[in-house]
Amino acid sequence: MTFWEKSPLFISLLLYVCSMILILRRSEKTEKAGLGILIAGWLLQLFSAIVRWKDIGHPPIFGTYEATMLGSWILTLFIAISFFLDRVHFRLTVLTALPLVIAHLLYGLSHSTDRVPLTISELSLWVDFHALFSWLAYAPLTLAFCLSTVYLLKGRLHQGAENSGEKRADQAVHQADQADQSDDLELLDQQIWRYMNLGFIAYTVMFALGCYHSASVNGEWWQWDPVETTSLATWLLIGLYIHLRIFYNWNGGKSARLAVVIFLTMIVAYWSLTYLPAGSTFHVFDLKNKMHAPF
Amino acid sequence: MKSENQPIKKIWNFLGSRNLSVFIIITAVVHVLILFAFAFLIPLWWVEKIAGLLPYQFVSILFLVNIAICLIKWFPVARSRCRVDEITGHHPDSGYFPHRIRIGRGNVRPDEIEKLVKKKGYRILEAQGNDALFFAVRGRFSPLGTLLFHFSFFILLTGILVNLLFRFEGLTIIPEGVSFSAGQGNFRSITAAPLAKPPRCDFRLEKISASFWEKEILFTSLEARILSNDGIDTTRLSSPVHLGGSAVTIAGYGYAPEFVIEDKSGRIVKHGNVLLNVFVPGLEDFFFVEDLPYKVMVSFYPDFTMSAGKPSSKSMNPVHPAYGVRVLRGKLQLYSGILQPGERASFDEYRISFPSFRRWGEFKIIFAPGRVFIWIGFIVMIAALIWRLLFYRREIVLSQNEAGELWLAGRFEYYGGLNLAGFGTGFKKSMEVRP
Fold first, then answer.
1. Each residue's pLDDT tens digit, A153-162
2. Nearest-by-CA chain B residue for A227
3. I want to staple A120 with a disulfide (CB 3.0 to 4.6 A). Which of A210, B11, B219, B327 is the partner?
4. Which of B204, B154, A120, A283 is nearest to A275 (CA)?
5. Per DSSP, which regions of B237-283 are E strands?
6. CB–CB of B224/A121 below 8 Å?
7. pTM here?
């Protein structure tokens, strides 16, 4: 990595940590300051990516390092957008999702950062957009997962408070608190649903672009490549989530648990491919881990 | 008569039921995860075979039958839901509008609220004597998006079926400077559907250019310039050229060394280019010399060097080519050595040389008329999803109670609470708002 690529990246990492501390301080002023710092970190990460793009001559989408950089960058973008989309749960989103951004960055940096060229099967705008939409799907589904875990934890606490049976002098206030928490959980649940829907749309676009590219390169729209297979499983599970919500009013804890399962399936789809046997997938992201066929 | 129809009706209802839809999705997920598990154990082409087995076909057929019946059942319902009176026919205080906020009393006018509502993209509908001041709707026809999304599967199916019947795929090897015409006999291998015919595809291969990454056998670019009736175009692995409805893409690369066999007087006896599979340095291929009892084994070193006493190649770029040559007559080896362009090797009463080479490309020519349907299917699917999930239906009604308080009630297909909160934020600046 060159100086102009490395430095902004490490600074953005620091800024993410600072923004997290500020946002979690429960003050509107520090929250806004934290958001500003988060956006600054995001811009620096973008700068680092542009420098790399300019040096290697192709969008930085190849290899574990580049993939995690892109994934963390888009996830940060969604976290920042959630300030405007879902102000109420912004702190929760930052608390749960920003550590994942930092974890992504550290995971990516632990891999080789050597500049490797794109293999010829990936020299295509279709691949660039396919990769972009794959991360545009990843980000909202990750946020849905984060909020789902919060929902499940809050739900347990809420349930515990309801079942505690303690006599309280301020019973009316207690009941009002419970009602507020119920409303909050309902809003949280709906926000999770919103993220799942956004993820579903992006996932479908990703499929369409990937299928078209596969048809161009291999002549086949679909090949049961393990990455395609697990992505299809994830997509079907999101479809199931939507059907269960609409048909059977599956909201609350049930849909939150399903959202967690969907996220785990997606993790397998996105990150397991480096552990697959050589030659079992056309999605080769790391030349060092697995030698691509000559083409 | 009625009892005869009962079983059919039961089957019809079952096949178009929501329970079956959910069951099919879960089964499909399980099937797909089984294929993923197999990918760790068996080669990919075996996984593809398993995916074509009866259980998978059965789930796919059931999936399509379920969607078809659901579309037939739900189309009238979705259409009726799009009617205006579906919204305006409900009283503001009825349970139809579950979300309510109090706007204010005396400090705001209904026309101000109407303006704000219009700004949010709603269309105002006149109230029809049910105590409402006005109704407003956004995304009124959005329920049709669900039908369109599910219908797109049939567009995809059409493309798949058309390809199953008419798809043609042919592989051929063409050296530089040679013309090609797609006829049955001109392909090295063909995969053709029952009704497929070789497409009309004529072109001349002008030039192939390739570059490699460092010393690795890894292409950073592989392009072929072809000349057809449509002019000159460049095909790459990831971006084929479309000629006569078929896609032409370069899928392989190799070398066709030029060989010259002379007799002792220097007269050329045999001469030509041979298509050899010698792309990987050191990999040996062979050819027989016509009318002569010789077998010539050849390997190719594109950037020749000696390394630890053995022939090797510094890179994959053919800048200093050399040939590893062995000439055999029966089992008797007559010559073994390295020849660079301009050098000759003697055996019996002949001499052989390899003055130059041409590149050859392996081309895949695919005619898949179902491609258009598949592409349209995906576009319709995505458009329908966006229509349904982003531009979902939102209905609101403004009413005034006896105390003169203005209330805004809403019904939102998705995220009711979030929408209500959004309204509250929107109105906060201009008027008193309390849920």
1. 988 877 776 6
2. B36
3. B219
4. A283
5. 241-243, 246-263, 268-273
6. no
7. 0.89
